[in-house]
Amino acid sequence: MLLQEQVATLADMLLNSKKTVVLTGAGISTESGIPDFRSPGGLWSKVDPMYAFSAETFTHRPEAFYQAGLPHLASIKSARPNRAHEVLAELEKASLLAGVVTQNVDSLHQRAGSTKVWEVHGHLRSATCMQCGGQIVWDHLMDKVMASQIPPRCNDCQGIYKPDCVFFGDPLTRDFTEATREVATTELMLVIGSSLEVAPANYLPMMAGSLAIINLDATVADSKANLIINRRAGETMDLLWNVLLRRHLV
Fold first, then answer.
1. Where does the record place the Deacetylase sirtuin-type domain (predicted)?
2. Which of 121, 123, 140, 248 is catalytic?
3. pLDDT score of 114 more than 70
4. Is 154 annotated as a binding residue?
5. Could you report the per-residue pLDDT of 126-156, keeping only the tens digit for each?
């Protein structure tokens, strides 16, 4: 099936669905310059995730994250939303999308204009003191790091600040519980840029009535999908938006 035909089918699925939720992974943000994790040249090929991004390591040696892990997150904070993020925000405004469940911590969905976003792995907008629970915004955390305060400490109690993202071994955020409830009544789930290898977020697509996947490579849920488009997210979502425009539906 040609890409244009696949996108037309996706448009039909979207329009026929009474409730659609999107699940996004690292692949949607690679076009914004953020490397993914598992592919050759990805983040995990540059740093051991169980060393730099482990909750247990952070508890006992927080400097490991700030010295080995934090530098690799620079591209996330400087990235800008791409066309896929923008189209998802427009679909929400057009009442064609109930919301986005994202495994990403880059906040690009919100920056593109999406308002209903469940961040199951947290975000990099702030950090929380592990002792008193006080929070600071990310820029203030970085000010401490740039001043060679590693690990950065709370001004009130001298506790250590931990970014508000999920480390390996951490429980998922409350957003995951909310997303699970939302997906339970979803007719169509659209997966964008995820290999669906990470549990438990990869169980969410199995809860929806039907499933469409946009991803460059095969996913573990391909056998369950009603539609698979192995193309880049930005290109595909832009084509989808144009199809909806031509039909005068947005």
1. 1-250
2. 121
3. yes
4. yes
5. 999 999 999 999 999 999 999 999 999 999 9
Is there a catalytic annotation at residue 60?
no
- pLDDT, mean over the chain: 93
Q: Are 166 and 173 in contact (CB under 8 A)?
A: yes
* 131 and 70, same domain (yes or no): yes
**How many domains would you assign to the chain?**
2
176 with 237, same domain: the answer is yes
* The model's pTM: 0.93
Looking at the structure, tell me whether residues 158 and 246 fall in a common domain. Answer: no
- Is residue 63 located within the same domain as residue 127? yes
* Same domain (yes/no): 127, 202: no
Residues 106-110: contacts with CB within 8 Å, 24+ apart?
106/29, 106/32, 106/34, 106/76, 106/79, 108/28, 108/29, 108/32, 108/79, 108/80, 108/81, 108/82, 109/24, 109/81, 109/85
Q: Strand, coil or helix: what is 98?
A: coil
Domain range spanning residue 194? 1-34+81-121+171-250
Q: Could you read off the pLDDT of 1-30 as tens digits, one per residue?
A: 799 999 999 999 999 999 999 999 999 999
Q: In the prediction, which pLDDT does 41 show?
A: 65
- 100: which 2 tokens? 């986005």
Q: Does 165 count as an annotated binding residue?
A: no
